[in-house]
Amino acid sequence: MGANEHGVCVANEAVVTREPASESEALLGMDLVRLGLERGATAKEALDVIVALLEEHGQGGNYYEDGSSCHTFQSAFLIVDRNEAWILETSGKYWAAEKITEGVKCICNQLSLTTKIDAEHPELRNYVRSQGWWNGDSDFNFSEVFSLADDHLACCSGRESLEKQGGDVSAQAMIDVLRDKDSGVCVDSESFLTTASIVSVLPQDPSFPCVHYFTGTPDPSRSIFKPFIFVDDVKLVPKVQSPSFGNDDPAKKIPRFQEKPDRRHELYKAHEWARSLLENDQEKGQKLMRIMLDLEKQGLEAMDDILTRTEVLDPAEVVDLFYDCVDTELKFFK
Hints:
The protein has 334 residues and is an alpha+beta fold. Helices cover 33% and strands 13% of the residues. The two termini are 29 Å apart.
């Protein structure tokens, strides 16, 4: 997931369809997120970028960097800006999209689009008819056509967790959703880990800035959300940038991904120490967590002030906002 300076946000979920994802190297869902954000100034532009790249290059490849394992998936996307939102679901180069105009929506590991389709691959229906997946007479239901068996009827943990909020879609409510381990939204197991989380607030009034809260560390139930605002000359934060390996990077060698480098940044490593403290010294761990959550609360309150004040934000006020938040977090860890 990610955001850009235009207030466009894109989230990606891996989905399994009746059409196996290709193991050949192509564009991963994460590549499509990055490229959509790089080239799209609106949600619709980002969607158009993604589907054009699907058509030209296709999707596929191993989601794991470790070449000893291979997992391939198709992709679903939630693409939003200040004014509109789209759900885009794909299978190979074929796709369908729904424009969201009201309510609360989420994407999950199952396909969710049914008969309400506002844009689609021009050959989508001809293709599925040729495969014998749709007879052309009944209503075209995207998830029924592309899902394995009854996967499209499975429950969505994200939707269930959202429903618990009772209609509250504040930043704090979304943070609570992302921390919901009981529902399965937040995962921390030996085989899988929620690696990072983002909550974005996108005011419809363009005079107010978009505010993005990033953890930059795994497991949001043990991480804090730190605010970031796009402004000119925003201060870079090397302590949350993965190390560069240049030409020695396994991603650049042929054959690729034959070794797995240590890509942890400084904040990630410090967070791992804090996680160990939480597990091995409950009293000290809980004290540290209370301090971190208090810092998070201060950040949320400061951003609420920015989003409710009448005067225009001075960019100099937030140019080093995220840098300072990361620096403060590291100091408490140390």
